[in-house]
Amino acid sequence: MGDSEHEPAMVQAKALVKRFGDFEAVRGIDVEVRPGEAFGFLGPNGAGKSSTMRMIASVSPRTDGDLRVLGMDPDVEGPKIRARLGVVPQQDNLDTELTVRQNLQIYGRYFGLSRAHVRSKAEELMEFAQLTDRANAEVDSLSGGMKRRLTIARSLVNDPELLLLDEPTTGLDPQARHLLWDRLFRLKAGGTTLIITTHYMDEAEQLCDRLVVMDNGRIAAEGSPADLISRYSTREVVELRFPNGEQEAAAKRIEGLAERVEVLPDRVLLYTMTGEATLEQAHARGLRPLSSLVRRSSLEDVFLRLTGRTLVD
């Protein structure tokens, strides 16, 4: 990121709070997003990610604390901030009866851009989103991946300095997800600062320079994906699968073999620095799992350790 650490922060939040009546959705978080980086918010449903994003987008006033976006106070200079932002909402909100080109041109006019400029910009963005051959197609005829690419293209009409993406690839197939990742890599390489919320751990590992894990309105951890894995997990994980009902007994027989042992309904996880050696030791104790796997620790291991495995509605 070069000298970005010495430049003014794109987003600076201190003791940021958001309440809805008696419910405190965001409970005094501190966040700093640096110029040119991709910053992620991870967390289960109800963790406070969307509430935080809406405050940064200057469409939802904070309840308490301090927030500066592009050096400005959203409560005072919201319109100026929004003019310099790009926002990709969780659900596509395109004009479905208009064509791809018309969606881009009409949206550009909302920012007061000239007709000539938005015509030129629309062509540039259709090429960027690989939609040039669908320029005159109505949005209703597009696939989910095409609609998502168009939504991202539309958010770039005003050449934003900061792009907010809320669950950008939810519901897309792997090919469409990877194509979108490529587009986001290109934006970041061009100097656009990205803030991303996602439920996909592999997406966060691929795209984010730094991220925070939010849980119950607070920040549980912050750092780069590699830093978080190093801090909250081990280098490797051994997965042992046993017949139903045998996991607890197996876990007792492997006590002391790993830094941490987790028993799941269908398998036992051993968190260790040396996976193959740990697996050999498990076999030496007479354990015969149905299957075994040694893998690298991932951000998902960190996420589940910090937020738990219980489903949050």
UniProtKB/TrEMBL annotation:
Residues 11-241 form the ABC transporter domain. It is found in: Cell membrane. The keyword Transport applies. SMART domains: AAA. Keywords: Antibiotic resistance, ATP-binding, Cell membrane, Hydrolase, Membrane, Nucleotide-binding, Translocase, Transport. Its EC number is 3.6.3.-. GO terms for molecular function: ATP binding; ATP hydrolysis activity. The keyword ATP-binding applies. InterPro entries: AAA+_ATPase, ABC_transporter-like_ATP-bd, ABC_transporter-like_CS, ABC_transporter_ATP-binding, P-loop_NTPase. SUPFAM superfamilies: P-loop containing nucleoside triphosphate hydrolases. It is a peripheral membrane protein. This is Nod factor export ATP-binding protein I. The gene is nodI.
